[in-house]
Amino acid sequence: MKAFANLYTLLDRTTSSNVKISAMVAYFTNASPNDAAWAVYFLAGGKPRQIVTTKLLRQLVINASLLPEWLFEESYHAVGDLAETITLILPKPEVTLKDTEGLAIWIEQKLLPLRGLAPEELIPKLLNFLYQLDKESQFVCIKLITGNLRVGVSKLLVTRALGLFAGVDAKRVAQRLVGYTSITVLPNEDLYQRLIAPVTADSLDERDAGQPYPFFLAHPLQIDLEDFQIQLGEPSDWQIEWKWDGIRAQIVKRENQLWVWSRGEELVTERFPELAALSDYLPDGTVLDGEIVTYLDGKIQPFALLQQRLGRKSTNAPLLKKAPVAMIVYDLLELEGNDLRQTKQSERRVLLENLVQKCNQPQLIISETLTGESWEELAIQRTESRSLGVEGLMLKNKNANYGVGRTKDVGTWWKWKIDPYTIDAVLIYAQSGHGRRSSLYSDFTFAVWDGPIEASDRKLVPFAKAYSGLTDSEMRKVDAIVRKTTVEKFGPVRSVTPTMVFELGFEGISYSARHKSGIAVRFPRMLRWREDKPLAEADTLQSLHALLPAS
Amino acid sequence: MDLIIARPEGLYCPIGDFYIDPWRPVDRAVITHGHSDHARTGNNHYLTAEAGKNILLKRLGHDIQLNTLKYGEVINHHGVNLSLHPAGHVLGSSQVRLEYKGEVWVASGDYKLENDGICTPFEHVRCHTFITESTFGLPIYKWQPQVNIFKDINSWWRQNAENNRTTVLFCYAFGKAQRLISGLDASIGPILVHGAVEPLNQIYREAGVYLPETQYVSALTDTSKLRQSIVIAPPSAQGTSWMKRFGDYSDGFASGWMQLRGNRRRRGIERGFIMSDHADWPDLLTAIENTRAERVFVTHGQVNVLVRYLTELGLDAQGFVTEYGDEELEEVECVNLAEATVPENTPENIDEMSTGEMSTSKINGEINI
Fold this sequence. Notes:
Mean pLDDT of chain A: 87
Radius of gyration of chain A: 26 Å
CATH superfamily of the domain at 219-417 in chain A: DNA ligase/mRNA capping enzyme
Helix content of chain B: 25-40%
CATH topology of the largest domain in chain B: Metallo-beta-lactamase, Chain A
Number of helices of chain A: 21
Distance between the termini of chain B: 40 Å
Low-confidence stretches of chain A: none
Structural class of chain B: alpha/beta
Strand content of chain A: 15-25%
Structural class of chain A: alpha+beta
CATH architecture of the largest domain in chain B: 4-Layer Sandwich
Low-confidence stretches of chain B: 330-369
Shape of chain B: globular
Distance between the termini of chain A: 57 Å
CATH superfamily of the largest domain in chain B: Ribonuclease Z/Hydroxyacylglutathione hydrolase-like
Radius of gyration of chain B: 21 Å
Oligomer: heterodimer
Strand content of chain B: 15-25%
């Protein structure tokens, strides 16, 4: 455990990618394959189901420290992180046992078997384990138990470190890593050895039949329209499509079986029986890339409806009827067992069109392409995005290969998104953040007026929460004002005298019975602080309603 | 009979007619120590510990009307016996002991129990009523002995020097800086200081405290040594153009607030060293217990928490509203509050602020850093 805790501390301390990579490589070099298997799992974001409930963890530390429960809660509010609070409060054991066991033993033989034990048995056992660890290791251990270990490394960085360590191309490691952190499998030495195995002549045989490809991701296009021509060339060089607002997914059909993978590399086949049914219509050796959307009466429905399908593992008949899904496909990554990723976008498109036509199923829809004489003309078409329920346009170079992740070396996908909806709203509640921002009031609730400016008795109605979009220095200023203008405190939340107006941006808006305002917005964030704007001129519920799509 | 009460100007002794660390100008002020939230300008008469004389003159100006007492020396003022006792916080810091007709009160100012080797260590003074600070009044705050911290800092510095990187350690200029310097291993490289730090080093040295040799950054003639150096600078230097001269440097911050990972990360520094001149949770409780006081007043920090905890232990505990802060955060916080101009369309804010809303937010110990 100590070696892994040291690695965590090193990764946590630095912001330099190179330092992080060399720390990981050093760890892989020294660790046993068993331990490394688990380390990769956690570094790449794997989370076993929670081993011990936070309630029991609280009880454990309260028992061990003899502190009153309220004092523990006060401490937790000050720290903002449960594992850290527990680590700080847990008394030092009288005798520290030496921690000589590796990560794998800790997880497999000590921690995982705790799951489901009765509290009277579990608490002393776990406490005993924790007392074998120093403070750094205790913190990491509790994070592992709660399934909350967030390390400051991206999956990409882990694949680079593994690739460097194993002498294998990082892209290949990324491909092998797909599914490694799935909640349904636990890592072991064999799986790890497969990650770092030398490359053999035939690359397909080292893959499970159900393996998807690493997704190719788009970059935001942030240039002015007049520069499009210079930077991108002719529109005819590009495959132009709507940017659908759904769930990015791959359908893999091999060996008479079909898998649906979401972009989080989660296997979601069971959640979408409509797509699973395509198994009978797609030939073996096919991999499709596209977007899952809800599709009803020949129209794509708002994301809110799709969300009802996401929360659950399986699904039932009424829901299937209310929110049926379809896949809008826009790429073909494998056909007849051949990896097409090195084939040109335009050629893949032709093959895709043929395939979708042959398959001829209503839940498999080909992504429409757009054409235009000029970028200006396309910009005009793009203004229809809102009414179509899409986020803008996608531009894909017709000569591009299908890359891995956010790479740009084999061609680029651009997302040309429409500007977000905006509204001027008033900050009325503030809550302290977590982790890095635990000592700052950084999570806010925003409200709009429920009546026009001339209404004498109008009130502020909360409608959205947001916590991103401010610079560090703005955040400090807002924090200080929150403290100065606090009216009441409810636990970690403060209500404030309304004084601050912010321009909020959001991506989608829909009716909601669950929200006080009757409205739910998607991805709300602060665009800017309107210090110039008087409170009375903040927007109203009516202005929010005006943004709702006509239906 | 209350020997000390809280007034809008500060803690006040009605019988003796003087204030302790007042935050508004008064006639007579007893100053526990020279940090700016305790020692303010504008008072007519000052009284402080002999050991803190030069600090106070340096900070408040040489023209103040200042009297001093040796630790333990007693003077009688309007029938109140007053003496000062070491608080172990910084050079010249003291607890104020007041005795009137057999009743003893002690106001602690800021204190720590660990002997830091550069100021007179804390003395446990028995009393009936104790006024304690509570800056780190939560059980999450538990300090390591300073030797451990010095070891960590020196090995961090040594490693940077080997990698040819300048080491920059941010800390409060008065007290913390000297404590850190006293623990540095000068064999690693030159110890460079920011302009805000060196005058205070001189005062410590004049008081007979041994500190290894330090020099201004600009005085370093052999610039090839820069990358082997450690630079001691106040937190306000972070992110300024003054830092540019160090090229690729490794930075750290020494403060009790570094106990929390969120604070370490928010600071944007590579290393956080947990070292404070305030008592941690166990030491607060020890100090309170050793006074044998039955009544405890809690000031600045985690007032509500400590009051509740002491009450549950059976003590008569209450909070005192003060405007003391935490010197380590003072600079940072001043900047934040100055930036935080409340929009004008809400006259009610002004009222809230003048009714002590500010001090409430401080006593709750919610500090920006």
